[in-house]
Amino acid sequence: MHPGARPDVGPPPRFTTPEPRLGFGAWALGGRGWGPGTDETDRIATVERAVERGITWFDTAPAYGAGDSEVLLGRALKGHRERVAIATKVGPRDDPRGSLEASLRRLQSDYVDLVQLHEALDGWEWRLEELATLQREGKALAIGLCNATHLQLGRALEFAPVVSCQGPYNLFDRDVEQRELPLCSERGLAFLAYRPLAAGLLTGKYRTPPRFGADDHRHAIYWFHGPEFARRERVLARLRSMAAARQVSPAALALAWLLARPGVSLVLAGARSAAQVDDNLTALETALSATDVTAIDTLVAQTFTPPRAGAETRARATAWGARERYIVERLDGSTSCEAIAAGWTDRGREPMVAAQVKVFVDQLAERGLVRPDGPPGDPP
């Protein structure tokens, strides 16, 4: 075990509570990749509103607006540094020391509360060890991993004092429920949920597939197009009614659902205006009962039933690649896309996520080779 590593670790020491909390995800704050940018004055006012309303955790990265997110946070939070926690990241191919020290300059701070490896790609173990060195030097109070598999998390805990895992999680995208969330709970790691509103889809404002500009990263996200958009919109139509009955927005309802999930430490909700900050915070006042949570889960499950492939498709798949064969062999009408992806990832090869399974299944469905929504009936 690496010197200083701990076999069992807890969440970052500052600004944490036993209950899940709402943090501020600052990707859109960088002003790039999210459609038409907003005025810098408005973006600073957004951060100031978050502080005013009691948000104390801000999550950013050098990649957000090519450093602009960190620069803006540094300006907006300079007078509040001891009242707030700042988390940033180091890119998967960046030099950890050079990256973090540049982030500290942009943030106008001597330290960050949490520095995270943005992705666990080739050479990630070395970079994580470097982050541990930077922590010992006082440049970060804690270190964590983002977008890592449960196998990588388990490996990381053998040699580095990792305290957190950050991954995408919302009522549609639930890969982390298979392996990462249970592991975090077992080992005492904080789990930080990003993309809690599915890049804006769960605001409920997109009733038809939106047309994003080429410079908007959302134009390439699969759930804003085709069959997946149609499935999600069927759920959203019901969620809008549920939210209206509670006199809250669909976004607040979706955040409240996530805040009610076991194992979630921080929900990182983004905002581009003070009004969006206020709306996000209504989630804290939207207490969902166990019955409410079950009703939402049931609605999602009824819409996203496990796909099913018949004998003909299975026979054709014998000539396909290993990943495609693996997926088809498990399209039995009862195994979820998330479970299929997790099972493949368990093998320790290139990881798979449910999105890849869904896209492949939709391609098969277009050719009439699979029934995307499971029983009844027998597909080819």
General description of the model:
The chain has helices spanning 40-52, 68-77, 96-107, 124-136, 150-156, 180-187, 226-245, 250-259, 274-281, 290-303, 311-317, 322-329, 337-345, 354-366; strands spanning 21-25, 57-59, 85-90, 114-117, 143-146, 162-168, 190-194, 266-269. The chain folds into two domains: 21-297, NADP-dependent oxidoreductase domain (TIM Barrel); 311-366, no CATH class. With 380 residues, the chain is an alpha/beta fold. α1 (40-52) runs parallel beside α9 (274-281). It is globular, with a radius of gyration of 21 Å. It contains 14 helices and eight strands.
Keywords:
alpha/beta, 14 helices, 380 residues, 8-stranded parallel β-barrel, 2 domains, globular, TIM Barrel, 10% strand, disordered N terminus
- Characterize the biggest β-sheet: 8 strands, parallel, barrel
Q: What is the third-level CATH name, the topology of the largest domain?
A: TIM Barrel
Strand order of the largest sheet: 1-2-3-4-5-6-7-8
CATH class of the largest domain: Alpha Beta
Order of helices and strands: EHEHEHEHEHEHEHHEHHHHHH
Percent helix range: 40-55%
Q: What is the residue-averaged pLDDT? A: 91
So, the CATH homologous superfamily of the largest domain? Answer: NADP-dependent oxidoreductase domain
Gap between N and C termini: 52 Å
| CATH architectural grouping of the largest domain | Alpha-Beta Barrel
Q: Return the structural class.
A: alpha/beta
- Please tally the helical runs, counting DSSP H or I stretches of 4 or more residues: 14
- Radius of gyration over alpha carbons? 21 Å
Instruction: Report the sheet-strand fraction.
Output: 5-15%
Q: Estimate the global geometry from the Cα principal axes.
A: globular
Which stretches are low in confidence, meaning pLDDT under 50 for 5 or more residues running? 1-13
DSSP E strands, number: 8
In total, the number of domains comes to 2
